[in-house]
Amino acid sequence: MVEWRKRAVSNDGIGLAVFEVHGSEPDDDDRPTVLLVHGWPDTHHLWTHVAPILARDFHVVAYDCRGFGESDHPSGDATYRLSLLADDLFAVAEAVRPDEPVHVVAHDWGSIQAWEAVARPGAENRIASFVSVSGPSLDDLALWVRENVSHPTPRNLGRLLAQAASSAYTVFFQLPVLPRLFFTAVGSARLWRAFLHRIEGTPPHHVVVATTLRDDMVSGLRLYRANIRPAMTAPQPATTFVPVLEVINERDIALRPAIFDGTHRRVQRLWRLRTPTGHWLPYTHPEYLADVAHDFIATHAPAAGICATGHLDRARLFGMPTPLSGKLAVVTAGGSGLGRELAFALAEMGCALVLADTDLPRLDETARQSKAFGAQVSTYDLDLSDTAAVRSFAESVRAAHGIADIVVNDTGIIWSTSTLDAADDDVDHLLEVERGVIASSRAFGRQMVERGVGGHIVNVAPAVTSERSRESAAGAGVITFSASLRGELADRRIGVTSVRPGPHDSSRDDGPHDLSRRAARAVVAAIIRNKPVATMPSDTTPAHRVAARLSRIIRRHTA
């Protein structure tokens, strides 16, 4: 359990309770200061599990925002405007570290008020970096709503309706009497822990709250009344020069990922991580949040000499994000065929690539072309049939690049005969490669489970050249294994997709192959949608459907 040392800071007559992690105070080592800012209905206790991890290298400070915990609770809604909350943040920063800028990590309404702070002219002189978790700029949110309303395409209307459903509670929170009565009745720590466990699976013992929780729930309603309607009706977006890391939670019950799509327009230096996690990340995945915050802060505090992994370099965002922006993708058999086209498709979606194959000249050509999309690319010599080498490869990737978000195990095999007619050596090689697919899935899957924030594994069976490819036994082991593994890893938010390329979906030559490209796009779509099977283009083209039907008719009448 973290040991906090309390001190008091005043801003324009409002008393703020400030807490420093004991033992993290900057002395001779001159540690950078990290300022933790909570949201509704939390206090500094939100950071109970994150703070001690950061305190190993940083001076860690948290505070109870006005209206919460041990800080003052000024009356009236006007005293909870974002401009005043930003003043509080600067006041605390000045008090705890007057000689240099602080690094801010903020969640929920803490992040919303931090956006207000970093948007001020000269904010970069007091805030060295900002890690935003589940809290958008209200100005950006208002602009996003207006843009989607002004261009009412089915997609935009769908996104608006989805966010409106997620935000419906904010309307209730702004009513004059009912929310006060509601939280007075149900605002107990026991019920709050049960609620978080039900909606996000949060272990109840991870949820640390103040004894003032019931009062904080009611007092914090002023945030909604004081800020949402003014921001929605008269947004005032501004550019910030503070480096920002957005941690996007895809399973956030309150905020849909789409609302963050425009952040890059006003943040000069933006990084983004997106994972299938929920709203209360400091409770559910404190180690992950602390690790990424540590890496980001270390990157922007070079004078402190704290080691940064460099893994966040791939998360730098320069334009409109995609669902896969900044993710690390591993692709085997990347030298040609479907593996090469998958590398291109993933690079185009903003992924960093680790490519592996035994044909290094072709692999280098794939890497060269992938870099044209702006992707970071590394290459490895790997024989997928060597299970020991596969396991070593997984550890090498982790050590050099971090834990992979996407792993594509492409067998790289084209099967051109029936199983009964195949040579014994070919069957043995097929089985060895399939064992390599299993070994890779297990090795990278363990790493994903250990990290705890999901991932995706794609297993590509051999491409069968026969028109009866769907009936071939070749690759059945990959397909069956993938289906079973998907069931095992579902509760870990790790998706598994199987791919069985047809006779036209994969080519081992270096020339252009339209169906291979379309097959690669189909696989990427399956990753984004977490589909169990990627539907190949040859399954859906009219020519193939006609050919397949004619083939079945002929077989039936000649049998």
Automatic annotation (TrEMBL):
GO molecular function ontology, one term from the record? oxidoreductase activity, acting on the CH-OH group of donors, NAD or NADP as acceptor
Q: What is this protein called?
A: Peptidase S33 family protein
Which organism does this record belong to?
Gordonia rhizosphera NBRC 16068
The similarity annotation says: Belongs to the short-chain dehydrogenases/reductases (SDR) family.
Region of interest: Disordered: 496-515
Name the source's superkingdom: Bacteria
Keywords annotated in UniProt: Oxidoreductase
Q: Name one Pfam family in it.
A: adh_short
- PANTHER family under this entry? 2-DEHYDRO-3-DEOXY-D-GLUCONATE 5-DEHYDROGENASE, SHORT-CHAIN DEHYDROGENASES/REDUCTASES FAMILY MEMBER
